[in-house]
Design goal:
This protein is α+β, with helices and mostly antiparallel strands. Helices cover 27% and strands 40% of the residues. The chain has a five-stranded mixed barrel. Helix 3 runs antiparallel to helix 4. The longest helix has 13 residues. Keywords: Lyase. One of its GO terms (molecular function) is gamma-glutamylcyclotransferase activity. InterPro entries: G-Glutamylcylcotransferase, GGCT-like, GGCT-like_sf.
Length: 151
């Protein structure tokens, strides 16, 4: 049975998702309320990776992709679930139409969290912003990502 996957980081990029799980999947813009985007997940090179944390009144914009069980297994591998880099979490998102969907997303594992925000690499940030623009996420949200990353 297919499941919705909510992407908020570099998996917003259509090209990246095609490389990771193959041919294009149904995708819809969605928002997750009660969370905010941060770059506090430490990568192997010391740069920051996207993560979400609970925050009253905040919203994270992203995309829900319809994924098969096999697709999610592939994403698990790319997100380093086995090594504790990210963990899969069940969430509820809202589409522009107002419809709510049950979905899964990935939240950084505790052992990879930095005490403060880290600067993402330019390439990583460009991938996120390119994906956000491809899916036409709100302009003010895209600007907030750029500001968060210190651009």
């Amino acid at each position: 049975m297919d499941q919705w996957y909510f992407a908020y980081g570099s998996n917003l990029s259509k090209e990246q998702m095609e490389k990771r799980i193959g041919s294009s999947r149904e995708a819809q813009v969605a928002r997750l309320t009660g969370y905010r985007l941060v770059f506090n997940k430490r990568s192997d090179d010391g740069t920051g990776k996207a993560n979400i944390v609970p925050a009253a009144g905040a919203t994270v914009w992203g995309v829900v992709y319809r994924c098969s069980h096999d697709d999610l297994q592939k994403i698990d591998r790319y997100e380093g679930v086995k090594g504790g880099h990210y963990q899969r979490h069940a969430i509820r998102v809202q589409l522009d139409s107002g419809e709510e969907l049950d979905a899964v997303t990935y939240v950084a594992g505790e052992k990879f969290l930095a005490a403060e925000s880290l600067k993402p690499s330019t390439e990583y940030l460009e991938t996120i912003i390119r994906g956000a623009r491809q899916h036409r996420l709100p302009d003010d949200y895209i600007r907030s990502i750029e500001a968060l990353a210190g651009l």
